[in-house]
Structure formats: structure tokens, C-alpha cells
Amino acid sequence: MPKLSIGQMAKMNQISVQTLRLYDKMGLLQPAYINQETGYRYYDMKQNATLDMIQYMKGAGMTLKEISHVFEQKDYSLLNRMLQNHLHQIDQEVEALHLKQKAIQRMICSYDRYLKSPPDGVMTLEYIEERKIYSHMTTINFYEEGIEAYENILLQLKQEMKKHGVSEYYYYNAGTTIFIDNFLAKRTVSQEIFVFVDKDCQSQYLQILPANLYVCMYCDDFDKEKDYIPQIHQYLQDHNLKMIGDYICEVVTELPMNKGQKREMFLRLQVPVEFVKK
């Protein structure tokens, strides 16, 4: 069988000479023959099988150290366990990439909604489909305590999401709730903070916001929300509408801000309603 120089072997298998030297050094693939006078290394065609196996195992995510260990031990159950571990790692990486993809899509959707939304102060009547939320009860009333209290509530929410296995990527569009009894009594008391999650999200801690007709008001500043709520009360009265569920404030999107500034948010204030039949 003809001898192949290290250069010929490398070219035939589309790898570098340096790679073959590394495999030789690690004992993975040593030359079939070494000329003692010249020091030249030669391979034969049969060694392509070993080289193919190394390349295949590398392609499966195994390190050269792991491959060397398998070759030394000749333990195929060990190889199977290693491959199972790598498959699990790849599954996790794929899931992480999928979540990143969904996070980007979510941000694109949010900015698209922002660009197409009515301007600040506009009131609308909208039918909104069923939505799924993850919520966290809070004793902090940020309407009284301000933006710093709101930031503390967000931190609590993030911690609870992590504890309950809800992905952080949902954290981008948070919202807050005023329960119906407080809203009707004109008490601005924040009692719940939530995030919208995908329909396929699974957790025992999720709730459903039913599809409904909503009175919506758009707001371009966190500090304006409390002032806009009385206008919603007046709208309900003027248009003979009955509130049938909790008030929610949805963050449509957060806008890029300068370092150290407060969050710039575009909000959609929402009250589920039905027409009062005369």
C-alpha cells in the first residue's frame, strides 16, 4: 500500500498539517511509518477510517481529550454516555437560542405596536383577545411611593419568575393591576405586577385574562398614569359602560434611555367593560 506524506494525508482529508501533528502528539492518530533517517512521517489509506471517526466525534461536540480517552479505554458505553451528555447540552443550547429568538420577536412586535399606536392621551374602545399572565402580589403601592418603589417591585417580580421557572425573556413587558373594587372606589392602589407569557408557556402560577372589550387609554409617561385614571372613570360614565374586571396597565414598550435616567415607557391603560343595556 503506497505511503502518504503528512502533507498528502492532510490534503486528502481537507485538514491542516498542524492538525495531524496535534493528533500524533495526543496519540490519537500516529503515522504508520517514520523514516528514521529523515524523520519524515508517512500514513497509509487505512488510517482514514480513524481520522474519519475523530472528525465525526468532534462534529458531535466531543473534545480531543474525550476522544483520546474513549480510544484508550475502548469503552463504548462510555462513548454512549458522553454522546448523551453532549446531546443534552445541545438541547439546552437550542432552547436558549429559541428563547433569544422569541425575545427578539417580542421586542420587534412591541416597537411595531408602539409606532402604530395612538398618541398620548387618546382613548379607544378595543376588543382584546385572551391573554396569559404570570403575576406577583405586592404590598408596595408605587402610585404613592413613586418610580423607585416600582423598580423594587420589578426586582421582586424577576426573583419570583426565576424561582418558579418562568423565563426572563417575558420580563420585558411588565404590567400592573388595580383590582376592580379599588378602581370603582377610586383608590389607586397597586396590588399586583405581572408579565404576559406565550400561550404555550406552562406553569401552575399562570392566570388567564379573558378576551373582552376594553376601554384603553395611551400614556407616554409613568407619572401621567395616575392623572389619566379619572378620565377613564369619566369615559365609562359618559358612554354607559360597566367595568367587569380589574384595571391593568400594560407596558407596550420601553424606550432606550440615557444612563441613569428613569425608565421611558409607553403604556396602554385598560379596563374591561360591557355596555349597560337600557
UniProtKB/TrEMBL annotation:
InterPro entries: DNA-bd_dom_put_sf, MerR-type_HTH_dom, MerR_fam, Reg_factor_effector_dom_sf. The keyword Amino-acid biosynthesis does not apply. Residues 3-73 form the HTH merR-type domain. The keyword Membrane does not apply. It comes from the Bacteria. GO terms for molecular function: DNA binding; DNA-binding transcription factor activity. Keywords: DNA-binding, Repressor, Transcription, Transcription regulation. It holds the Pfam family MerR_1. Gene3D superfamilies: 1.10.1660.10. PANTHER family: MERR-FAMILY TRANSCRIPTIONAL REGULATOR, REDOX-CYCLING DRUG-SENSING TRANSCRIPTIONAL ACTIVATOR SOXR. This is MerR family transcriptional regulator. It comes from Candidatus Fimiplasma intestinipullorum. The lineage of its organism: Bacteria, Bacillati, Bacillota, Clostridia, Eubacteriales.
